[in-house]
Amino acid sequence: MTPAARVQAAIEILDRVIEAAKGQGAPADRIVADWAKANRYAGSKDRRAVRELVYDAIRHCGPVPESGRAAMLALAERDKSIAALFDGSQYGPAPIQPDEPVAKRGFAPVWLGKRLSASDVKGAEGMALMGRAPLDVRVNTLKADRAALDLPVAGEHLAAPNALRFEAGTPVDQWDAFREGRFEVQDHGSQLACLAAGVRPGETVIDLCAGAGGKTLALAAAMQNAGRLIASDTDKRRLSQLGPRAERGGAGLVEQRLLDPGREMEMLGDLAGAADCVLIDAPCSGVGTWRRKPEAKWRLTPDRLAQFAATQDALLALGAKLVKPGGRLVFVTCSLLDEEGPDRFAAFLQGHEGWRADMPELPLGTARGQGIRLSPFHHGTDGFFVARAHLPC
Ligand SMILES: C[S@@+](CC[C@H](N)C(=O)[O-])C[C@H]1O[C@@H](n2cnc3c(N)ncnc32)[C@H](O)[C@@H]1O
C-alpha cells in the first residue's frame, strides 16, 4: 500500500469506529482486525501503519468526530507529513478543501472533560490518558519466581512484587513461559489493586465480578492455592475464559459461579456472611483504560455513567452481605471519575452501619477520598480507584 492509501484505509476504518461508538457496536480493535482480514493485500507493515493512524486519530480527537476524514484532518493539522498525503492519488484521500470540517482535538468530549476536571483529571493528567500503555505482566508465583524467571527479553521490575514491564507490542504471548503459565499479562495497576485485598492461604475469598479472571488468578497465587476462591460473574462468555487460564496457571482452587442478573444473592446464598474477603472489581466507564481503548470516551453518555454508578452501589450492597464479621470488602473501578470511585465508596459507608474504611497500604498510589487513586500520569499504571472497608467482629 502507498502511504496515501494507508491514510484512506484509516479514514474508512475510523468511519466504522465512529458509527460503532454511537450505536454501542464493536470495539475499535475488532474493527481494525476485521479490516485486516477482509484486505489480505495489506502486509504486516501496512496493517501496523494503518492501525497506528487509526489509534492516533482517536486519541487526538476529544468529541466524537463528524467523520473519519474529519478525524484524520485533525491529525493532519498537527502532522504536516500526513497532510501531504491528502494528494488525490489512486487509493489515497482527496485533496484537503479550505472549508472542510476538522474534528475537535482534546482528550474527551466536552461534557466528560468537565466531569473529569471536577475529579482533578485535567492538564497533564488528562493528556496522559491519550498516551500508549506499556505491556505489564504478573509472574505467577504458583509456577515461577520473578527473580529467577528467564525470559527472551528482560522486563523492568515494577513496584508490585511480581510485576514486570515490557515495551508495548512485545510478543510475550509467543514465549514458552507464557504458554506454560509462568506469567499472565496484567496491568501493574490491576496487580496493585489485587494487593489491596491482602488475601492469605486458607481464606474464603469471593471475586464477585471476576470477568475473564485476571484478578482471580492473582488472588489464587497470593492464596498459594489454599482455601476457597469463588469467581462469579453474570457474563457467561467472559467467565468461560477463566477455566483454561486457571488450568494453564495451575490455579486449582478456583470455583466458578455464573450468576443470573437480578438473582445474584439467591445464587450466592450459601456464602452469605461467610467470606473473609469480597473483591468487587465493578463494571465502570473504563476511563482508566483509555490508553488501550481510546474510543471508549465516545461510547460513554451521562445516562450510561449514571447506570454504572447504580450498578456499583448495588454490587457494594451485595458484596457486604457476603462478608463475615472481621472480614473485608475491596472496591475497585478502572475509572478516574469520583462518581465511580470515592463517591460510591462514601455512599456505601454512609448507608451501611458498622463498616469502616480501611485505607490499603500500597507501594504506589495517591489518597483520594477514603481510598487510593492510581493514574497513568502519576504512577504509569492504568487509572484505578481502590478502597477497602472492614466489618468489625
Ligand atoms: C471490570 S470487569 C471485571 C474484570 C475482571 N475482574 C478482571 O480482572 O479481568 C466487571 C465485570 O463485572 C461483571 N458484572 C456486571 N454486573 C454484574 C453483576 N450484577 N454481578 C456480577 N458481575 C457483574 C461484568 O460482566 C464484568 O465482567
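^ S-adenosylmethionine complex. Residues 18 and 196 are 37 Å apart (CA to CA). The chain has 17 helices and 13 strands.
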